[in-house]
Write a structure and sequence with these properties.
alpha/beta, seven-stranded parallel β-sheet, 12 helices, 15% strand
Length: 360
Amino acid sequence: MKILHIVNSLETGGAQTLIETLASEHSRADVETHVVVLLGTDTLSERVEAVAASVTYLDLPVGALALPLGAVRLRRAIKALRPDVVHSHLLQSDLLTTFARGSVPHISTVHTSGGHESNWQSRVVTKLTAATSRFRSRVIACSPSAFRFSVASLGREPDDVILNAVELRSPDLSRAPGRAVITSLARWHPMKDHRNLLAAVSSLPTPKPQLVLAGSGIDEDNAQLVELLAEYANVDVTVLGAVADVIPHIDRSICLIIASAYGEALPMAGIESLSRGVPVVTTAVGDCDLLAIKKSYLALPSDPVDLRRALVAALGDFSSDATGTARLAYAKAESEFDARRAGTRYLGHYRSMLAEQEAR
């Protein structure tokens, strides 16, 4: 079986990590995975290229020409690759795939809980995606909140909910307290609410943990970020920019922090963190509550006082029982976010879509 995944870009993100995970998992089931990217090469290109049979970049321009030009280029790519199923991710790719797929069965995954429509282009794409949703063969939600977004904003009830997942590789869970490091893997975007994060860490008692920030736009060339960091000069911050391999940074952390104000569904970064035995402190947006091993690790969105409280709880647990906390985190990954289960369920949809087409 030949599956073609279509995605906006290969910057660090949940949709991109899911594609990598499924490509690796499905290779064991004699599935040939190809990927078409609407834009050019990006942070995760090497990782995806390592597990996919091919990766094609359409190098579309940003702007009004992207939709008509993208439909033409994508149609050519689909004809050349001749996949059995096309699987699109993110709204722009969903929309273009609808116009370009021809008669190939089309499944899409919804990766958002909404609130991301910050400009008129995003709002137009959302409305067009909703208007064409009935033409997609199947729709999968990556979490319950993504299901609700699809119903409310895309006018389509998903056919299934398949939680995001990663491959589990049995990390070393014997952890000893050392210098406290908190890591955030979040691109520069209002929904990620870096101000909330910095305000919470700034108010922690001394000695404060080191804060590591990584993601697209998280670098010294970002004047807005530099200005924000200057407001919280008492925080020891390291900025890394976009990082292709997040695991070494997660492994050095006592927790991953998600400070988002809205828009999240089920962040893959949180699942990757749990898979390494590193707990997640998170605001209660979308389905981020599924990532918390304890209720005390959940905080209200846009509330730095409550986020500080959750961080204090995680810091205390790490100091008193680091190994026990790591085991709880990994156990949650095993029970809820194992790629073997997610891969099997997606494969079942691919096969049944092909069977339906053959029966027509």
